[in-house]
Amino acid sequence: xxxxxxxxxxxxxxxxxxEEMAAHLFTRGYxxxxxxxxxxxxxxxxxxxxxxxxxxALSFLGRLxxxxxxxxGRRIIFAGCAAQRLGQQLKKTFPYLDIVSGAREIDxxxxxxxxxxxxxxxxxxxxxQKGITGYVTIMRxxxxxxxxxxxxxxxxxxxCLPSAEILQQAAKKASQGYPxxxxxxxxxxxxxxxxxxxxxxxxxxxxxxGVARVRFVSPHPAFITPQFLDGIKSNTxxxxxxxLPAQSGSSKVxxxxxxxYTREILLDKIHALKQIGFxxxxxxxxxxxxxxxxxxxxxxxxxxxxGFSAAYCFKYSPRQGTPAAEMKLLDExxxxxxLDILLNKVRGLAEAxxxxxxxxxxxxxxxxxxxxxxxxxxxIQTQKSYTVGSVVQTEVTASDGTLLFTRD
Length: 408
Ligand code: 5AD
Ligand code: SF4
Fold this sequence. Notes:
binds iron/sulfur cluster; five-stranded mixed beta barrel; Rossmann fold; alpha/beta; 18 strands; binds 5'-deoxyadenosine; Transcription Regulator spoIIAA; CATH 2.40.50; five-stranded parallel sheet; single chain
C-alpha cells in the first residue's frame, strides 16, 4: 500500500478539508503516514489569509523538490486557499507539482484525482482517530466583504449544506466515538435553511445519540442576535465558549474594515453572551492602513472592557485584490510596536480567565481519564479517574493559570 503524508496550514476548516480529501485517497490505495520520508504522496493543504501563511506553504513546497527527486514515483498535491489564489500558474514555478486543487474545487477533488492517471481504485488505510472532537463542515464561503480579507475571493459566496446531510455526518462522527461535535464554516452562524435557523441546527445536533457537547467556529458577530441567544440558552450541551473575531476596538476602523458593527454593538453582544455563561476569545488585527494611535488604543481598551479569555493578534497583511490593499500601508515599525504592545496586554488574559473559574461548578468532557475541557474551554485536571468521553460535573478548587484542578 502506498503512503500519504498530509501537511495542513491554517484554520480548523482546512483540517476538516484535509480529512475529506484524504478520505478519497484512502479509497485509492493510500494509507496515512506521519513520516514524510516514507511517503509516496504529499497532500499540502494551504492557507492564504495572511502573506506569512502562504509563504510557509510555498517554502514547504520548495523543499519537496528534493524529496521528490529522492525516490521515483513520488507525487505532490497542492490544495486549499493558496492553491485557489495562485492557480495553475504554480506549475510554472514548481514544475514538479502533480495536482493543483483550489479550495473551491473540493467537491470535484475525486474527479480531479481520477483524471490524474496515477491513482487507481484500491483499498487503502483508515484515518487515524485523534482526540474526542469530530469536525463537521456545515457551510463554506463568505458573503461579507471585509476590506482586508481575501477569504470571499478564494472561498467564494456562502453555500450551506442541507441539515439532513449535516445531521447524518454528525451522527456518524458520534457513533465513531467523537462525543464532541464541532460545526465548521467560514461564517458558521450564517448557516440557514428554509424554516430552520442556526440555533435549531445546534439543538438538533446536540440531541443526536452519543453527542455530549457541540461547538462551532468561526462565527460572525452579525448573527449573534437575541433570537439566537434565546434559541440556545436552555441547551447546556452547547458549549459556553465562543471564538468571536472583534478585529478592532475602534468604531472608525471597524467601519473602514466594513465589519458591519461598532464597538458599542459588539460590546452589547459580548455582554449578552456573558449573561448566559459564555467565555469569549477573539481575533484582533493591528496596523490596518487607517489605524491611528488613538484607534489602536481603542483596541487595547476593548481588550480590557470585553474580558476576553484569549486573543489571537495579527499584524495587518495586505492581500492582493482586496480594497484595503489599495490603501497606503503604515510603517512596518509601527505595526511591530503595536503588535508588541497588544501581545503584552493579552498575555495575562488566559491566566485571569482561569482564575475567574475558581469556585465554579463546571461540566467537564474527559479527554483522558483525568483531564478534560470545560464547556467554557478551560483545561481541567480531576482527582478521580473517569471514562474518556464522559461528562462530569465538578467544582473548581484551584488554578495554576493554565490548568484548573478539582476536589474530586
Ligand atoms: N491581515 C491580517 N490578519 C487578517 N485576518 C484576516 N485577513 C487578514 C489580513 N489581511 C485575520 C482576522 C481573521 C483571522 C482568521 O485572520 O483576524 O479573523
Ligand atoms: Fe473575511 Fe470578513 Fe468573511 Fe470573516 S467575515 S471570512 S474576515 S470577509
